[in-house]
Amino acid sequence: MKKNNVNLSKVISSDRSLILLALFNSAMVMNFDFIVWNYPIFLFAVFLFFLNSIVIVKWWLSVVIVFVSLYQLIPHFPRMANHCNILLFIEVVVLGVFFLRFVKPKEGISGDQMSNLFRVTLVSIYFWAGFSKLNMDFFNPCISCVNRFHEMLLYNFTGQVVQISSGLSKFLQYLTIILELIVPFGLFWKRTRLYTVIALLGFHFYLNFITFYSFSALAVFLVFGSLYSDFDVINKKVKIGLKVYLISNLIVLLLNSWFKSQGSDLAFSYFILGIIYNAGLLCFSVPLLISYKVQKTKEGFKPLWLVYFIIPAIIIWNLKSYIGLGNSGNLTMFSNLITESSRSNHILFNTHSTKIVDWEEDKVEILSLSDTLSSYELEGYTIPVIEFNYLTSEWSKQYNNPLRAVIVHHTDTLRIEDLSNSKYNSIEWWYKYVPFRKVRSNGDSPCVW
């Protein structure tokens, strides 16, 4: 069978590749939502996004946006949203692909290789997000993270606090595990690919009504990449839908930053923005999926060499939770996971046996903090000493007033008048790169980011 490879320069300039770049631009810029709208770098990025995705699409403008995004993300790594860390890794890979365009412009990449790169990445992300949820507290209908998700959603729709029943909680727990651990593997087979994409996009459509449209923008990019080899020709309706989707992204991005600058009710704001984002998503995804046709060509697994880098990287990034090298920012979000050796709750991994360092075991219990630090919601929780030291160091830079605290460390209750002048305001440079989640001092683990 003839090898259907096209040189890298033509691949990057193809119609479907330019759409993929536009979606990538959207995924990057949508994660600028933590920047106030009047910041110059934010306006610059938005302008580039508009120019590159809605008016014209040029690969070199995408490179500029990648550098702007890296400039924003790298200082926060790895202490940012889980998907932002994944986005940073993807940006580095994309830069590598663009670099190859100049070093080896005749390097051949087939459509199958490109799609399999995205499929492996997408499946790995969902799998490890689901894997961290395989713990006893996630399956506890009283405190499971699915309760928090769906109670937030019901509040957005009804304006009232509605608690879901234990039976519904159980159903949603197992549905979440199936959607994250099993369903994504359907991307590898032609007969199940379309149904898998519909299930994944439906999952994100649902979550967008809460606040997760920035994560959704990344998922849409990865999903389209997974279908890359199935679209030799992109019809006009899909292109128009793409423009509407990108414009909705811009509206969401600007409104989100404006709402934050005005101190608006974030729960209501996120709901409105989720509606706008979902309207654009429907305009793009519906014609895209309607035009989807199963390819009759013989299809095998033809991995691009980058797959052999991505799989180990994602595995190591996520397994570090179970060996003591930080359990935050690496797809453990909303999982109820506890990795302390004495309280490990994962069904498959007992961290009492898997830890190679014991940084998490030396911890402090926070009884009270200054009102200045109330937004961190740490009272009644324990965190490792190295995490507490890192936070203290950051707080000391942000606040000039005394930072009082009452903590328990090594069974001793300590009343500290100012953390800035205490022994806890002492860090090593690497503390930043091993972030840990807070854990409830006693009892089960409630849902935390």
Short synopsis of the structure:
It is built from 15 helices and seven strands.
Lay out the secondary structure.
Blueprint: E1 5-7, H1 8-13, H2 15-29, H3 40-55, H4 59-73, H5 82-103, E2 108-110, H6 111-131, H7 145-158, H8 166-182, H9 190-207, H10 213-226, H11 236-261, H12 266-290, H13 307-319, H14 351-354, E3 363-369, E4 381-384, H15 385-398, E5 405-409, E6 412-416, E7 439-440
Antiparallel strand pairs: 1-2, 3-4, 3-5, 4-7, 5-6
Helix pairs in contact: 2-3, 2-4, 2-10, 2-11, 3-4, 3-11, 4-5, 6-8, 6-10, 6-13, 9-10, 9-12, 11-12
What does this structure look like?
Helix 4 (59-73) packs across helix 5 (82-103). The chain has helices at residues 8-13, 15-29, 40-55, 59-73, 82-103, 111-131, 145-158, 166-182, 190-207, 213-226, 236-261, 266-290, 307-319, 351-354, 385-398, and strands at 5-7, 108-110, 363-369, 381-384, 405-409, 412-416, 439-440. It is of the alpha+beta class and 449 residues long. The chain is globular and about 70 Å long. The protein has 15 helices and 7 strands.
From the structure above, extract its key features.
single chain; 449 residues; alpha+beta; five-stranded antiparallel beta sheet; two-stranded antiparallel ribbon; 53% helix; 6% strand; globular
